[in-house]
Amino acid sequence: MMNGYDLSNDYVIAELVKDQILENIFSFLNLKDLKNCMLVCKTWFRILGDENNELWRFHCIRRLSEEVLRSDLLSNLPTYKTKLRAFLHAWSPNDCSRNIYIKPNGFTLHRNPVAQSTDACRGKIGFSRGRHAWEVIWEGPLGTVAVIGVSTKQAPLQCQGYVGLLGSDESSWGWNLVDNILLHNGDTQGDYPMMNNSPKYQVGERVRVILDCDSGTLCFEKKYEFLGVAFRNLPFNTKLYPTVSAVYGNTEVSMVYVGLPLDG
């Protein structure tokens, strides 16, 4: 206080202006540089740690289409930064069958109506450490085989016939939503989930895939109900990618990376 004037107001205003200037500067940096900037000082860490400020809104709007931001697809992601992170983890247009293309929203694959072919697609980023969760939404008919799970880069992305491509070799693990069975190394690994009269997947349901690289397990949730461990003894220090394989023409499958799974 000086001569009846409260200097704290000026301090608050100055801090706000400083934050706005930094946010503006950060908007010109790429995401890798922003990650490094978080290590510089507490102020920069605080600004970059606010996942819903104008900085992350700018980066989010610059990369994501207005259509997907207005849709319900990302409704479970509360902040701009989590939406941007999901986009960076979405389906890879460079790691899919030639019969699949990624729609302009960046999150949804479309399988062309090609007869006698099974086609797969992987996410952009694989995981070898930590715990990760993502949601898969099958937005078209399942056909005779519809498999979700994980694979390494060595797993094939296309084959002849209508088969469980994901799970057909030692480099992939999948859950066939049509028959409620697990597939790996070309063999059926048993029914899943392990419950009486397991309900069939309904088109449009969100299935959450939970990969724990540290314990080597793959699990699934449906309607926020934990369905149990599907696979154990997944390879350590090997990148595993979100993957699906489909057979039905014009079917579409979306994938939204959630991040660290919540227990309980």
From TrEMBL:
- Recorded GO CC terms: SCF ubiquitin ligase complex; synapse
Query: Where in the cell does this protein reside?
Result: Synapse
Using the UniProt record, give the first listed, main subcellular location: other
All copies of the F-box domain together span 11-59
* InterPro entries, A to Z: B30.2/SPRY, B30.2/SPRY_sf, ConA-like_dom_sf, F-box-like_dom_sf, F-box_dom, FBXO45-Fsn/SPSB_families, SPRY_dom, SPRY_FBXO45
Q: Which SUPFAM superfamilies match?
A: Concanavalin A-like lectins/glucanases, F-box domain
- Bilayer-crossing regions: none
Q: Which residues form the B30.2/SPRY domain?
A: 69-262
PANTHER family, alphabetically?
Answer: F-BOX_SPRY DOMAIN-CONTAINING PROTEIN 1, SPRY DOMAIN CONTAINING SOCS BOX PROTEIN
Family indicated by similarity: Belongs to the FBXO45/Fsn family.
What name is this protein filed under? F-box/SPRY domain-containing protein 1
